[in-house]
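PROTEIN DESIGN WORKSHEET
SECTION A - STRUCTURE
LENGTH: 146
TOKENS:
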């Protein structure tokens, strides 16, 4: 997917993207003051990115501006992070749209109950809350995409 006006495009991750993906992730960690250890989150990210499909949004001057990790068979999005400077530009919805096409099924993801920013964004994109708790995901709510 290419956004001609904004200049970014979405493609599959290559190994050379990993440092930039981690930089985007670090840029976003301040959004999660309730999460315990950033080191643990980083280790989890590395495992997820190497074991699953990962899409990146790339802009020629800024480099990697966002990424999404997808467990394709489950149509489950484990990570979606957009650099602060690039939010409200359609990057998040663009990544979700490409992931939806790859999974060929409505996507699901878990959001921290404290993450009101993400809730507002997903609501705006037509996502809905799955009824009932998800085992092993205390403090999170499962959402389903359109
Ligand atoms: C949540 C997040 C991925 C949204 O990405 P984004 O690129 O800014 O989203 P988009 O620009 O594609 O916006 C999609 C829609 O959500 C809305 N939206 C985005 N952020 C919003 C916010 N903070 N409050 C209200 N609405 C918001 C947009 O206005 C747009 O709606 P519209 O089409 O009706 O105009 C981004 O804020 C982010 O990376 N947050 C930190 C990490 C995070 O919480 N990830 C999710 C973990 S589950």
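SECTION B - SEQUENCE
RESIDUE ASSIGNMENT:
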């Amino acid at each position: 997917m290419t956004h001609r006006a904004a200049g970014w495009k979405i493609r599959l991750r290559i190994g050379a993207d990993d440092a930039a993906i981690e930089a985007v992730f670090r840029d976003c960690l301040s959004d999660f003051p309730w999460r315990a250890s950033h080191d643990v989150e980083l280790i989890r990210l590395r495992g997820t990115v190497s074991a699953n499909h990962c899409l990146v949004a790339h802009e020629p001057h800024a480099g990697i501006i966002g990424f999404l990790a997808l467990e394709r068979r489950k149509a489950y999005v484990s990570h979606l992070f957009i650099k602060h400077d690039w939010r409200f530009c359609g990057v998040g919805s663009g990544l979700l749209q490409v992931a939806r096409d790859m999974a060929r099924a409505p996507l699901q993801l878990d959001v921290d109950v404290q993450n009101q920013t993400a809730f507002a964004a997903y609501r705006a994109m037509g996502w809905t809350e799955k009824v009932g708790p998800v085992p092993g995901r205390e403090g999170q709510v499962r959402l389903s995409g359109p």
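SECTION C - NOTES
The longest strand covers residues 63-71.
The chain is about 30% helix and 25% strand.
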